[in-house]
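Sequence in, structure out.
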Amino acid sequence: MIPDTSLPFTDRIDPDALPVPEVLVLSLSALLWLVLVQGWLPGPGPVPAGLEAPMDAPGVPETAAMANGLGGVAAYLLTWGAMMLAMMLPSLLPVVRRYRSDLCDSVFVPSITAFLGGYGLAWTLVGAVPLAVAALVSIRDLLTGTVIGVSVGAVAVGGLLAFAGGYQFTSLKRDLLARCGCCRSVHHRPSVARMAREGLEYAANCIGCTWPLFALMVALGSMNLLVMVGLTLVVSLERLAADGDAVARALGVVLLGAAAFTLLFGVPAV
């Protein structure tokens, strides 16, 4: 018997069976990655004369942003915010799934948009920290300088690796990571302002959980795509794996090993 295909296409799809949170979050993350890889966002401006290094080299984006005034700072923060969202969105899948079950269908999209807006705003503001450091000391000069024949960059990167590795074993890291895997229940029709606040508060928790890794990212090149991909995998595994604590501890061991290697043998030329 030939099956009846006369029903409209929409009548043959069960909307409840669609993985809406996964599609929404991963599609937005993929779009942001495309924007970053294609260079569709304005850069922090031309690299200052005399600085012979690409934009993805350590300290270069911050130096360029500070050298190009408010326009450079604004472009840096815009790119930083897009980078953070692209990297962090996959780790938000459990949270978006929870909201999908709490919220009415009619308010799901605006509520999640407000949540992600608050979340992205918080991470964008974090970009002011490396800029503040760059205003006080040249990150590029620091990472490429030497003192009494000792590479300052190797010491700085090795120290950050050691700190980030040790942080993975702290009770604070465990507590924050546990909170990253869940979120507070919300009313089935929350206000947009309430969801924006939820995004800000949840981002504050994520920042506390991962800030040593992103400090390390600045030292390795804040716009280095390879570093970004590595951090995306690490952060996602910590939050999506069945035993996030075990992943965090394993990462701590790797970071401490990398710190020892860096302090002994230095880092590649930057």
